[in-house]
């Protein structure tokens, strides 16, 4: 999963990416006890020469120089959640709902086919109006916490 250079979402708070077991919806047990990658980790994450940020979602550790960007997953299906807290309106932004300049990064399977279910969660803060929430529920691009946006075409 690669976030292009300059495309980290503009937020007043933070973002996170968490991988869950597809069947149980529980965190994936792993030997490094890492259950998410988030914006607080940015200073320790390695960026590519072009400034992009790649998060490695896989069971086995990547090359040693990529371990900081490794979110341990399991082979097979993974339930992936990206949370964005308190979005700004400046670009790149998810606002206005359904028409923002920021889009979630594409997830690319390497080596073996992997079916990933992604949910982009926009958490409600006082500045997030009921009208914006209703627009969010109608949009395929941004969904509130409990309305998953499926990328594998199946409703769960």
Write the SSE topology.
Blueprint lengths: L1 E2 L11 E7 L14 E3 L14 E2 L1 E3 L11 E3 L5 E8 L30 E8 L6 H9 L4 E2 L12
Parallel strand pairs: 5-6, 7-8, 8-9
Antiparallel strand pairs: 1-4, 2-3, 2-7
Walk me through the structure.
By secondary structure, the chain is mainly beta. The protein has one domain (2-144). It contains one helix and nine strands; from the N terminus they run ββββββββαβ. It has a five-stranded mixed beta sheet.
Radius of gyration: 15 Å
- Structural class, from helix and strand content? mainly beta
What percentage of amino acids are in beta strands? Answer: 15-25%
Number of strands: 9
Number of domains: 1
Straight-line N-to-C gap = 22 Å
Shape assignment: globular
Query: Stretches where pLDDT falls below 50 for ≥5 residues?
Result: 113-120, 122-128, 132-156
Written as H for each helix and E for each strand, in order along the chain, the element string is: EEEEEEEEHE
Helical segment count: 1
Q: Spatial order of the strands in the main sheet? A: 3-2-7-8-9
Helix share, percent: under 10%
The biggest beta sheet reads:
5 strands, mixed
Oligomer: single chain
Average pLDDT: 76
Which features would summarize this protein structure in a list?
single chain, 9 strands, two-stranded antiparallel sheet, 156 residues, disordered C terminus, five-stranded mixed sheet, 1 helix, mainly beta
């Amino acid at each position: 999963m690669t976030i292009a250079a300059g495309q980290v979402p503009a937020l007043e708070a933070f973002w996170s990416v968490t991988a869950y077991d597809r069947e149980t919806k529980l965190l994936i047990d792993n030997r490094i006890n890492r259950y998410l990658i988030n914006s607080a980790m940015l200073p320790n994450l390695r960026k590519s020469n072009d400034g992009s940020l790649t998060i490695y979602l896989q069971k086995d550790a990547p090359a040693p120089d990529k371990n900081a960007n490794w979110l341990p997953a399991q082979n097979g299906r993974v339930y992936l959640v990206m949370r964005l807290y308190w979005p700004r309106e400046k670009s790149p932004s998810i606002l206005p709902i359904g028409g923002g300049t920021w889009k979630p990064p594409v997830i690319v399977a390497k080596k073996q086919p992997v079916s990933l279910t992604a949910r982009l969660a926009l958490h409600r803060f006082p500045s997030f109006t009921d009208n914006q929430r209703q627009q969010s529920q109608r949009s395929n691009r941004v969904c509130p916490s409990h309305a998953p946006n499926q990328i594998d075409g199946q409703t769960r």
